[in-house]
Design a protein that fits this description.
By secondary structure, the protein is of the alpha/beta class. Helix content is 41%, strand content 17%. The strands form two sheets. An eight-stranded mixed beta sheet has the order 7-6-8-9-10-11-13-12, sandwiched between helices. A five-stranded parallel beta sheet has the order 2-3-4-1-5, sandwiched between helices. α3 links the parallel β2 and β3. α8 packs across α11 and α9 crosses α12. It starts with 5 loop residues before the first helix and ends with a helix.
């Protein structure tokens, strides 16, 4: 089943039939291929003949085991010979990054008249190769994420799983159970295609994705042979997401369990995991004149399902899981995010910025019922004297409103569904 994802479809359609190469990037299995199929379907609905729609998936049967740029060029030339030159030709190349020299083939396509080209890729190397040189100013990157909570509700509705995105369904008693499911298993769209959807099948599904990312997008691409160390590092990252990361500390931790390694090796593995788009790095940023000479960083998983699978589905770090959801939602909304560091050592969970100059501050908490927790969550925001919006996001929905200092307190569900309309319509 093809379920619409309007947030991304609208971004793509903004560049439909333009000379720009459209490059969809995102972690493996987050829905890029399905979006290509949706755009191809729109092209066919415009009256385009089938010979003018070329969709190539690099994992389909019949593709050479080691395809080359020459093979790709010959394949496309053969297809293009049958296309009607008086119509627009749409070319969709899915997971193209594993063909050496593919950039030059795409560059040639870009010079062809009446040709609309779309690419997908599952790693950051795709845009750090010759593509950025050969197509400087001629491509548009559209970042695709796993399902947001609003999209998750839409998928549940489309698959007949008992809750929709209609107003009557979005009551706390209906949402909390669904959110817990979303938090535990994440938003990888393929889980809804499982013949039987239960704990066992979803965990097996997540394992398949996690293993594929580590083996294909990390180890194979960067020639990492120590898979055991890579798996241990990924599990450590996810278990400690929300905590400031220290390369030296993880080297010591690994050595304590008999795994000798070096800081350089860990940094190389971290870079590979980031480039596979499975983890997100959030650096420290000094507030109120605080200069950070050696800024540290936090890492969050691109999907809480993958995080929880790698970490063994922990139940004791609920607050960090909530942070992970907020982190991913802010990135999806187009923010660059940082961890705020204040002179007294306290932190602001997230500083969110856009190139337009927009800036916001966020604290994330499980509950504000306890008075001490309430004061602790507000304190860092109260120290910031600028006029940018400040928000505390709470899972329990208690004490919502605006404080005398102008700090907004919102429930997590309400905040996540602020963009429900653009996610689902």
């Amino acid at each position: 089943m093809l379920v619409s994802r309007p947030y991304y479809e609208n971004q793509i359609m903004n560049y439909f039939e333009t000379p720009f190469i459209k490059v969809l990037t995102g972690v493996r299995r987050c829905g890029k291929s399905t979006l290509l199929q949706m755009i191809a379907k729109r092209a066919s609905q415009n009256g385009t003949g089938k010979d003018n729609i070329i969709l190539l998936r690099m994992d389909e049967y019949g593709i050479p085991l080691q395809p080359t740029a020459d093979w790709l060029a010959n394949y496309l030339d053969e297809k293009l010979q049958h296309a009607n030159p008086n119509q627009m030709t749409y070319i969709f190349l899915d997971e193209i990054q594993d063909i050496p020299g593919w950039e030059r083939v795409v560059r040639q396509l870009q010079t062809r008249s009446n040709t609309d080209v779309y690419l997908t890729g599952s790693n950051a190397y795709m845009l750090s190769t010759e593509l950025s040189t050969l197509l400087a100013g001629r491509f548009i990157e559209i970042k695709i994420n796993p399902l947001s909570f609003g999209e998750y509700l839409s998928f549940r509705h489309q698959y007949g799983l008992g809750i929709s995105e209609t107003k009557n369904s979005l009551e706390p008693e209906n949402l909390n159970g669904v959110f817990s499911e979303y938090l535990k298993y994440g938003g990888m769209p393929g889980q809804f295609d499982l013949a039987e959807r239960n704990d066992e099948t979803i965990i097996s599904f997540l394992k398949g994705i996690f293993d594929s990312i580590l083996l294909n997008d990390v180890a194979k691409r960067t020639h990492i042979s120590d898979i055991d160390l890579l798996e241990k590092l990924a599990a450590y990252l996810f278990k400690t997401s929300g905590s400031l990361f220290s390369t030296k500390k993880i080297v010591n931790t690994l050595q304590s369990i008999g795994r000798k390694t070096s800081q350089r090796t860990i940094d190389d593995y971290l870079k590979a995991l980031k480039n596979a788009l499975i983890v997100r790095e959030v650096p420290q940023f000094g507030l109120k004149g605080k200069e950070i000479l050696n800024p540290r960083r936090k890492f969050y998983a691109v999907d809480t399902g993958l995080r929880n699978f790698a970490a063994g589905f922990p139940v004791e770090d609920f607050g960090y899981q909530l942070e992970n959801v907020v982190c991913n939602e802010l990135i999806k909304r187009g923010y660059e995010i940082f961890v705020g560091s204040l002179p007294n050592g306290s932190e602001v969970d997230f500083i969110a910025r856009k190139p337009t100059g927009e800036q916001r501050y966020y604290q994330v908490t499980q509950s504000l019922e306890n008075e001490e927790v309430y004061r602790r969550e507000l304190a860092p925001l109260q120290q910031i004297t600028d006029s940018f919006p400040k928000t505390v996001i709470t899972f329990d929905g208690l004490r919502t409103g605006i404080t005398k200092e102008g700090i907004q307190i919102v429930s997590l569900n309400d905040w996540l569904l602020e963009t429900l309309k653009e996610d689902t319509y």
